[in-house]
Design a protein that fits this description.
Shape: elongated
CATH class of the largest domain: Mainly Alpha
Number of strands: 5
Helix content: 40-55%
Strand content: 15-25%
CATH topology of the largest domain: Multidrug-efflux Transporter Regulator, Chain: A, Domain 2
Radius of gyration: 19 Å
CATH architecture of the largest domain: Orthogonal Bundle
Order of helices and strands: EEHEHHEEH
Oligomer: single chain
Structural class: alpha+beta
Distance between the termini: 64 Å
Number of domains: 2
Largest sheet: 3 strands, antiparallel
Length: 95
């Protein structure tokens, strides 16, 4: 069963009502905007390091950077860890 909302979008109400889905979307958005002090999002980390998101994922995979919170889709990284990696990359580039 489906029902349109005020914008004309059709919501499926088979398992969850439209209010439940909307609440989940709003909470996901809010969680992604609320970051503990001393942490950076993946996008912020990429900007600090001067790389793309894929490179940030590679640093995590290789153990050079550790996630310190967030969700699987929106990880956070400790500012100290990001700055340490940035300093390490700068010294390698200078050598």
């Amino acid at each position: 069963m489906t029902s349109p909302n005020s914008t004309g979008t059709t919501w499926s109400t088979a398992k969850h009502g439209p209010d439940t889905r909307l609440s989940c979307r709003i909470m996901e958005r809010m969680e992604s905007q609320i970051i503990r002090p001393g942490h950076l999002t993946a996008h912020q980390t990429a900007r600090v390091l001067g790389v793309g998101l894929d490179a940030v994922r590679q640093y995590v995979r290789r153990g050079q950077l550790t996630r310190s919170g967030g969700t699987a889709r929106q990880p956070w990284y400790a500012v100290a860890d990001v700055h340490a990696l940035h300093a390490k990359r700068r010294t390698r580039a200078a050598a």
